[in-house]
Design brief:
Length: about 160
C-alpha cells in the first residue's frame, strides 16, 4: 500500500522543506526548458548551414550537375556503400540494393520546427518497377513522458505502397 502525504497536512519544518524543494525544482525545470529551446535553435541553425551541402550531394548522386560527377564512380559508392560494407551492416541488405538504385533523395522535416520532436522522412524514388507512389513518407511521433526523461517513440505512420 502506497503512502501519500498531502502537502496541505504538513506543518512546520516539513512544510518548509517541501515548499523549498518545489521552488528549487521549478527553477531547475525553467532552466531545462530554456536549455531545450536553445538546443533546438542551435540544431536549426546548423541544419540550415548543412542544407546546401545536402543539395549538392543530391545533385552529385542524381547526376543533375555533370560537372560535379566524379569520373571514378565514387557517386555510386555513396549510394551502394560497397567500399565500406561494415558501415552499413544490418541496415541495407543485398536484396535492397536493386530497389535503392532508384532512390533519388531523402529529406527530413520536423512537424514543429521549434519543438523539434516528431518528424518525417521523405524518400523520393524515380519511377521504378517495384512500387508506387514514388514518394514515401515515414512519420515518427515522439512524446515527452511525464517523468521528464527523453522523448519516446509513441507511433509511426508510412505511405502505403502498391
Amino acid at each position: 500500500m502506497a503512502c501519500s502525504i498531502s502537502h496541505s497536512t504538513l506543518t512546520g519544518p516539513r512544510d518548509l522543506h517541501v515548499s523549498t524543494h518545489k521552488r528549487v525544482q521549478k527553477q531547475h525545470d525553467e532552466i531545462e526548458k530554456q536549455y531545450r529551446e536553445e538546443w533546438n535553435e542551435l540544431k536549426t541553425k546548423y541544419q540550415k548551414l548543412k542544407d546546401p551541402i545536402y543539395r549538392k550531394h543530391y545533385s552529385v548522386l542524381t547526376k543533375k550537375d555533370e560537372s560535379t560527377v566524379p569520373s571514378d564512380g565514387s557517386a555510386q559508392v555513396l549510394v551502394d556503400g560497397s567500399e565500406e560494407p561494415h558501415k552499413r551492416a544490418g541496415m541495407i541488405e543485398r536484396h535492397d540494393e536493386p530497389v535503392l538504385a532508384y532512390l533519388e533523395d531523402i529529406q527530413s522535416e520536423w512537424f514543429d520546427d521549434k519543438k523539434q520532436s516528431s518528424f518525417r522522412l521523405i524518400f523520393k524514388f524515380s519511377e521504378n518497377p517495384y512500387f508506387e507512389p514514388s514518394t514515401i513518407v515515414k512519420s515518427y511521433i515522439l512524446e515527452q513522458p511525464d517523468d521528464g526523461k527523453d522523448e519516446v517513440l509513441s507511433s509511426t505512420d508510412c505511405t502505403e505502397l502498391v
